[in-house]
Amino acid sequence: MAVRGMSACKTYRRHDCTRRHRTYATLARCIWGRRAAWVMGEGPFATLAWCRTLTVSLHRTLEAATEAKGYIDSTSCGGVCTGRHEIIRLEPGGRAIENPGTQLQNRSQRSSGKHSPRGPMGG
């Protein structure tokens, strides 16, 4: 099923490291790094404001990203807003990142039954 408006949305698939990022937030920090004043939220759709300093807001749906972009387009993103706002879809290596909640569950299942000792004496 095609998502309405997706053709107008850029897709970023490449970044400058060989890591397999576990969340979209870590992928966004890898892509925009020090250029971004902040990266907040979680999800595959990034709303970017390139005015004065780059800011990145992540959203779980295109609709939420579109709504956020519409808000900053109509109210401006700050004191020196130039209107350079866009939506980018993050798609690492051409595949989606799995749900972070599932990752936490999988991690806890792997570690159940294995208790790491505490302190130098294991207690």
Report on this model:
The protein is α/β, with parallel strands linked by helices. The protein has one domain (about 10-95). About 30% of the residues lie in helices and about 20% in strands. It has a five-stranded mixed sheet, with helices on both faces. The protein is globular. Mean pLDDT is about 75; it is low at about 1-5 and about 100-123.
Radius of gyration: 18 Å
Please provide the ordered H/E string of secondary-structure elements: EHEEEHEH
Cα separation of the termini: 54 Å
SS summary, helix count: 3
Q: What labels describe this entry?
A:
123 residues, alpha/beta, 3 helices, five-stranded mixed sheet, disordered C terminus, 28% helix
Helix and strand layout, with pairings?
Blueprint: E1 10-12, H1 24-32, E2 36-41, E3 45-49, E4 54-59, H2 62-75, E5 85-90, H3 100-111
Parallel strand pairs: 1-5, 2-4
Antiparallel strand pairs: 3-4, 3-5
Concise account of the structure shown:
This protein has three helices and five strands; from the N terminus they run βαβββαβα. It is of the alpha/beta class.
